[in-house]
Amino acid sequence: MKGSLNGIRAILFDAGGTLIDLDSSRICDLISTELGIEPLPDRFPRAQCLAGFRIGQLIASGAKSTEKLFKEYYTTLLTEIGAPQEKLAAGLERILELSKSEMLWRKTADSTASILAELKERGLRLGVVSNSDGRIESVFKQLGLADYFDLIIDSFVVGVEKPDPGIFRLAVERASVAPQEAAYVGDLYSVDVIGARRANLIPVLYDPFGLNQSADCLRISAMSDLIGLIEEGKS
Question: Each residue of 203-215: pLDDT tens digit?
C-alpha cells in the first residue's frame, strides 16, 4: 500500500522483531552444544520473521495463550534453522528455560542508532510500545538506545498489552501528540497494525522478507524506509 507519513509528530516502535532481535549466536550455540546438532545461522533472520508470522496467524485466529504462542514461535524458529523433528521438544524446553534467566531479545542492527538519531534530528518524538515481561527498558539501556526515546512502555509494567488500543492511547498521551499524529511500526499485523489502527494511529508494518504482500497499510522492508516515507509527505 502506497502512502506517506505526512504531518506526523511521533513514531512509536514495537521492540522484539522490529527494533531488537533474538541473540542468534546464543541460541545457535545452545542447540549445537546441548542438542548435538549444527544449526544453520544464515537462516536465522528469515526464520525469526517466519516464526513471528506464524504466531501472528494464530493470534488472528483467536489464540490468546502466551505460553502456547511462545512455544509455537520457538518451534517454528528451531525448525527453520535446521533442528530435526526428534530434537524439537528438547530444544524448545531448553530455550524456554533459558529465557527465564536471560533476556534473549538483546541484539539490534548496526544501523538502528543512526536511524533513530536522524528521526530525532527531524524533531520527532520517539517511543517504544512492547508486549514484554518487565525487562524491555533495561534492554534498550544495555544497547545504548534508551536515550533516543521519549517513552518506553512495557505491557507487563502498565498492565495492558497489544492489540488492546489502550496501550497505544497511553503511548500517545505520554508523547503529548494526537493519535493521528503518531505512526506505529511493528512486525505483526494482527497485533501491531490492528491495535494501532483501533487507537487511530497510523500503522506501518515492518516486513523485511515480504511475507505480508497484501497488507492494507504502509509497509517497509527496512527501518531506513521511514525516512523516505517522511520525505514523501513533504513533496
Answer: 999 999 999 999 9
Read off the pLDDT of residues 67-100 as tens digits, 9 standing for 90 and up. 889 899 999 999 999 889 999 999 999 999 998 8
CA distances from 62 to 23, 26, 53, 164 (A): 29, 32, 15, 14
> Percentage of residues in the chain with pLDDT exceeding 70?
97
Q: What cell numbers appear for 209 in the block?
A: 522478507
Per-domain residue ranges of the chain: 10-20+108-234, 22-105
163 upstream amide cis, omega within 30 of 0: yes
Residue in this structure with the C-alpha cell 500517545, named with its chain if needed: 172
Cell numbers at 8, concatenated: 506526523
Strands 21-22 and 10-13: unpaired
- Copy the grid coordinates of residue 223: 527501518
In this structure, are residues 196 and 164 in contact, taking their beta carbons and an 8 Å threshold?
no
What span, in angstroms and rounded, lies between the C-alpha atoms of 221 and 207?
A: 5
219 is written with which cell numbers? 509497509
Spatial distance between the Cα atoms of 130 and 133, rounded to a whole number of angstroms: 9
Q: Chain centroid to CA 80: how far?
A: 19
CATH architecture of 10-20+108-234: 3-Layer(aba) Sandwich (3.40)
Per-residue model confidence (pLDDT) at position 175: 98
Q: Give residue-wise pLDDT tens across range 173-186.
A: 999 999 999 999 99
Based on C-alpha coordinates, what's the Rg of the chain?
18
Mean pLDDT of 217-231: 95
What amino acid is encoded at 224 in this protein?
S
Mean pLDDT calculated for residue range 45-70: 90
